[in-house]
Design a protein that fits this description.
Serine Threonine Protein Phosphatase 5, Tetratricopeptide repeat; transmembrane helix; mainly alpha; about 450 residues; coiled coil; about 75% helix; Tetratricopeptide repeat-containing protein; SRFR1-like
Length: about 450
């Protein structure tokens, strides 16, 4: 267990040996988070995925850096067919712990399989379309779409739940029961599946009760004959018609046929044409709604992915800057200890910002910063002055410029820099630098010497 402030390994004590922070409550929270993780793991082993997800959610809510709990929560989501939620948990885990993290392996397995990614995208689109159809009351279209979803992703619990709900809506209670049994094989205590299953059982019991009641009523209506009942046989008498009656019957039949065509067939055909037209219009509207829904869904997914990319890029950039600052400080400290003040000053000035740094970082930084710059300026001023005297003006200008940058109060360095500029023929910079000597150190001997390099 590491300190939440300075990231130092914690001991058995209730305070951090590195920064002195009180970590008693922090340790209790982490232990409770681990306990929730262990309970979630037990639930997973017994195929109680809903219960496992609840415990693992509690674990990461208590301690968001519990990457073991977050990775297992992602696996639970993946097993339940919710790949997007699984990827979200693994990406967060990877950002918290970039090295030695199983989330890397899980993410790579998905990203390195373009066909699997395409199946995931199609599953999301079709599920959202089916849900949209169901909300609009187009249950048949929703049923077709959700079956396609489950063909692509046979473990998608949300898909089975929607299919069972549609089957209950169509009074297909036995089919709904079979669908819900598939859910319970994946997640043995799924609360939605259990509730739908009870509803299906209740409706099946009601149907069986109604059926048995009808059979009983029919049996009661049937009574046996006794010796006093009289059986009357059906009459076989036929009235033989003559020829005129036959002709009349034919004419009447023709008229009835014409009437049937006019009053029944023609209106039915007109109605059929009208219904076909309405069906085409409805299909067109549904196709347009489908295209619009898919477009909106794709835009939402794109916006969500762009937001995640920007967030991850911001975190990565911030982490990279902090890591670079730590590396530069460590190198500067080692050079400081070895007596290489110039090299140490170069490293510590490379740290452009100390915002958000830990207390141990700032303690070391403040301890060596001023000393490094002061000693480096003194060393560079000496080597620069020697270079001026030997006629190596380029080296002199480079060393003395850095000396002045590290210690603006070093009058000797500033004076010799103006002398180096003057001797190299750069009269403009020589005059500017000499004026700085006169301005910063008025009345000193350096100001008097600098008068020689001011361009008249």
């Amino acid at each position: 267990m590491r300190c939440y402030k300075c990231d130092k390994e914690l001991s058995v004590d209730d305070f951090c040996a590195g920064c002195g922070a009180d970590v008693g409550l922090f340790k209790k929270i982490v232990r409770m988070s681990n306990a929730y993780y262990n309970m979630g793991l037990e639930k997973v082993r017994s195929r109680d995925l809903s219960g496992a997800a609840e415990y693992l959610h509690g674990s990461v809510r208590l301690y968001k850096k519990n990457t073991d709990a977050r990775n297992l929560l992602g696996l639970v989501y993946f097993e339940m067919g919710d790949v997007v939620e699984a990827l979200s948990e693994w990406v967060i885990s990877k950002n918290i712990q970039p090295a030695d993290n199983l989330a890397d392996h899980y993410i790579d397995d998905i990203q390195n399989n373009p066909a699997h990614l395409e199946v995931i995208n199609q599953t999301i689109k079709k599920y959202n379309l089916a849900l949209n159809y169901a909300q609009q009351g187009n249950y048949d279209l929703a049923l077709i779409q959700i079956k396609k979803v489950l063909t692509l992703n046979p473990k998608m619990i949300k898909g089975y739940q929607l299919l069972a709900l549609l089957q209950l809506k169509h009074n297909e209670f036995e089919k709904a029961k079979k669908t819900l049994e598939k859910v319970l094989k994946i997640d043995s205590t799924n609360p939605v599946a259990i509730r739908y299953s009870r509803e299906a059982d209740l409706e099946i019991a009601k149907r069986e009760e109604r059926t048995s009641g009808k059979k009983k009523h029919k049996q009661e209506e049937r009574t046996s004959l006794n010796g006093n009942d009289v059986i009357i046989p059906p009459s076989k008498y036929r009235d033989l018609n003559n020829g005129s009656v036959t002709i009349i019957n034919v004419v009447i039949g023709i008229l009835i046929g014409a009437a049937v065509v006019f009053f029944l067939v023609t209106p039915a055909r007109t109605k059929s044409i009208r219904e076909n037209y309405n069906a085409l219009v409805l299909q067109y509207d549904q196709d347009m709604a489908k295209v619009t829904a898919e477009k909106e869904d794709l835009q939402k997914q794109l916006d969500a992915l762009n937001g995640q990319v920007q967030e991850i890029q911001g975190q990565t950039s911030s982490n990279a800057q902090m890591q670079a600052a730590y590396d530069a400080l460590l190198q500067a400290y080692n050079l400081y200890k070895s007596g290489d003040y110039v090299g140490g000053a170069d490293k510590i000035t490379a740290i452009t910002s100390t915002d958000g740094m830990t207390e141990p970082f700032m303690a070391i930084y403040n301890e060596i910063h001023d000393t490094l710059l002061r000693e480096a300026a003194s060393s560079l001023a000496s080597s620069g002055t020697a270079a001026v005297n030997s006629g190596d003006y380029a080296t002199a200008i480079a060393n003395l410029s850095k000396a002045v940058l590290y210690d603006a109060t070093n009058a000797s360095a500033l004076y010799n820099l103006s002398k180096a500029y003057y001797s190299s023929g750069d009269l403009t910079n020589a005059s500017t630098t000499a004026n700085k000597v006169i301005e910063l150190f008025p009345g000193s001997s350096w100001a008097g010497y600098a008068q020689n390099y001011v361009t008249k």
